[in-house]
Design a protein that fits this description.
CATH superfamily of one domain: NAD(P)-binding Rossmann-like Domain
Structural class: alpha/beta
Order of helices and strands: EHEEEEHEEEHHHHEHEEHEEEHEEHEH
Radius of gyration: 22 Å
CATH class of one domain: Alpha Beta
Shape: globular
Strand order of the largest sheet: 8-7-13-14-15-12-16
CATH architecture of one domain: 3-Layer(aba) Sandwich
Helix content: 25-40%
Strand content: 15-25%
Bound molecules: flavin-adenine dinucleotide, uridine-5'-diphosphate
Oligomer: single chain
CATH topology of one domain: Rossmann fold
């Protein structure tokens, strides 16, 4: 029996769900119920103070970056920013290397000082000529050749995805820049910063509105028999919505192992990657990036895991078969007139936070024009 009624039911309190709830409430005066399976808001961007007082990112490091003034202006309504240049290192062959590959890495590799021109000339000799890389192996060997690929990419990617880079979409390793100058920031986007008081505070502000109800610890399927709505916004997994009728889409999961140490810092950078050693891919000490002043530190080791139903589907695995299956599900999604599929899981795409915010803002405009039509 229907006991309550909303304009919108929004499944998931991550960026996709929160942006839409906020826009619908503040711009159109629409009432939403945000239903979230987890016991907190923020989705994978959720952060919080751990038992020892250290601010950590609970689901892996979330480095906010964007090239979009529009997305930055939108989010800046809810937070001030702590600007930070994200710098990471890679541990392999018994030492730390600058990463992503840049002129410093090249000097470490050849064991002497060099110029950008010398690095460019070396890369010209090493790289494998491939016009249009069709997979993640080709995208790297076509830029830096086999040896640097084997050192930094192959082992990490096999651990992370349990697939050879040649069996993965070029966009996966293609995310990582290669530079011949001394810019050793992990990311290249113009704006790079963390929300000054953390991500969870951003979500609290976005969702703090009399027209928005948030219900945690609840699967949306458990409320739909008693809740009516004009339209649903779904940000959960695409295949799950359709009861996996074409088969399950492939995901990779993670296990996070945290350790608190009675020292100010543990490692030299906020993230150290381990392409060829250990079962974990990286150790993250986010305190380097948050700038928190605290006598203790917490580090998080990330162990890639097979996804099994009941675990978290952190990463869509973008191989050709999965993309074909995704397209079949997407056809069904497009036919659903009263449901919008928004965000990383609902579109089965490897999207960053700013891209998800952009997607949610675009969906809001689409819904608004539909209402005005
Ligand atoms: P989510 O944050 O996944 O939110 C979806 C929510 O829906 C979840 O909370 C889920 O519990 C809920 N849900 C699902 N099904 C149901 C259901 N049936 N009923 C109720 N609730 C449901 N992006 C960056 O820009 N920079 C980074 O450095 C970065 N690092 C990352 C590191 C890791 C390890 C991971 C996994 C992701 C990273 N991302 C990063 C990507 C970022 O997390 C996503 O872009 C963003 O969080 C996606 O937001 P979303 O709302 O689409 O999904
Ligand atoms: N990657 C790699 N070596 C590294 C870092 C990344 O091979 O040292 C590859 C790997 O396949 C990884 C992808 O590049 O999954 C994207 O890396 P990113 O750090 O962007 O991953 P995320 O933070 O999304 O887990």
């Amino acid at each position: 029996m229907i006991t309550r009624s909303y304009d919108y039911v929004i499944v998931g309190a991550g960026f996709a769900g929160a942006v839409l709830a906020e826009r619908l409430a503040t711009q159109l005066g629409k009432r939403s119920l945000v239903v979230e399976r987890r016991n907190h808001i923020g989705g994978n961007a959720h952060d919080g103070i751990d038992a020892s007082g250290v601010l950590i990112h609970n689901y892996g490091p979330h480095y906010f970056r964007t090239n979009s003034d529009r997305i930055l202006a939108y989010l800046s309504q809810f937070t001030q920013w702590h600007e930070v240049e994200y710098k990471i290192l890679s541990w392999t062959h018994g030492r730390l290397w600058n990463f992503p590959i840049n002129l410093n890495t090249f000097e470490q590799f050849i064991g002497k000082a060099a110029t950008s021109e010398e690095m460019q000339a070396a890369l010209e000799r090493w790289k494998v000529p491939i016009q249009n890389p069709t997979n993640s192996e080709e995208v790297i060997i076509s830029q830096v050749g086999w040896e640097l690929y084997e050192m930094f990419f192959r082992g990490y990617t096999k651990k992370q995805w349990r697939r050879e880079p040649k069996d993965l979409d070029p966009s996966i390793c293609g995310r990582i820049p290669v530079r011949t100058n001394r810019d050793d920031r992990y990311l290249s986007d113009r704006f790079q910063a963390l929300p000054k008081n953390g991500y969870t505070a951003v979500f609290e502000r976005m969702l703090d509105h009399p027209l928005i109800d948030v219900q945690l610890n609840t699967d949306y399927r458990d409320v739909m028999a008693t809740t009516s709505c004009g339209h649903m916004i779904y940000t959960g997994a695409l295949d799950e919505y359709f009861d996996c009728r074409f088969g399950p889409l492939p995901y990779r999961s993670l296990r996070f192992e945290t350790e608190t140490l009675e020292q100010e810092y543990y490692q030299a950078a906020m993230q150290v990657n381990y392409p060829n050693d250990h079962d974990y891919t990286r150790i993250v000490e986010i305190k380097h990036a948050t700038g928190q002043v605290c006598p203790r530190t917490t580090i998080v080791r990330e162990y890639p895991q097979d996804y099994v139903p009941g675990s978290e589907p952190y990463y869509p695995v973008l191989d050709p078969t999965a993309k074909e299956m995704r397209d079949r599900y997407w056809e069904l999604a497009e036919a659903e007139q009263k449901v919008s599929f928004v965000g990383r899981l609902a579109t089965f795409r490897y999207l960053n936070m700013d891209q998800v915010v952009g997607m949610a803002l675009a969906e809001f405009e689409r819904l608004r024009s539909k209402l005005n039509a």
